[in-house]
Structures are given as C-alpha cells and as structure tokens.
Amino acid sequence: MDLLLDMFTYPFILRAFVVGVLIALCAALLYEAVSIIYIAMSSAELTSAFFTRALTDALMTTLTAVVLMWPLRRLLGFGAPVSNAMAKG
Q1: Which run of H or E residues covers position 79?
Q2: Nearest CA among 58, 51, 3 for reference residue 25
Q3: Which of 54, 64, 56 lies closest to 20 in space, CA to CA?
C-alpha cells in the first residue's frame, strides 16, 4: 500500500491514472449512448430503466478499469521496481 501511495506523489503517474479512468468512462458512455440510440431506432419505448442501466453499466466499467489498472500495469512491466544496477547505467 505504501508503494501505491508513493507512486501517487509523482504528478505524471497521477495524470496517467486520471486519464485512464476518464477514457474508460468516456468509452463506456459512448457505447451506452449508441446502444440507447439503437433501442430508440427500433421503435421500442425508452423508459427510465434503460437510462439507469446505461449509467450503472458505465460506472461499473469505470470501476473495473480502476481495479484492474494497477495489476495489469504491473504484469506488463510498467510498474516493476527498477534495480540499482539498471538505474545507474
């Protein structure tokens, strides 16, 4: 946990985290908007349930992105600690 808090002291890591979350949210909202337009074009009656489900899906997609962001970055090697030999040369 201390490593995660130490990483957030760097502004570029904080910006990368915020950008990742915003991209996930925008992509989910765009998908849900297209889905609602598709439902409306099929002559179905749009109720509040469609909009509630769309908002819930977008928020859950964003939450999933936040939860999986750090383990996937670590797995891909972006968050791996740098050894002293690599840092010097």
Answers
A1: none
A2: 58
A3: 64
pTM: 0.67
Give the model confidence (pLDDT) of 70-89 as tens digits. 778 777 777 655 555 455 54
Question: Is 28 exposed, middle or buried, given 0-12, 13-18 or 19+ CB atoms closer than 10 A?
Answer: buried
Higher pLDDT, 5 or 55: 55
Please give the structure tokens belonging to residue 56: 């819930």
Residues with Cβ within 8 Å of residue 73, at least 6 apart in sequence: 79
Residues 6+ apart with CB under 8 A from 61: 24, 25, 27, 28
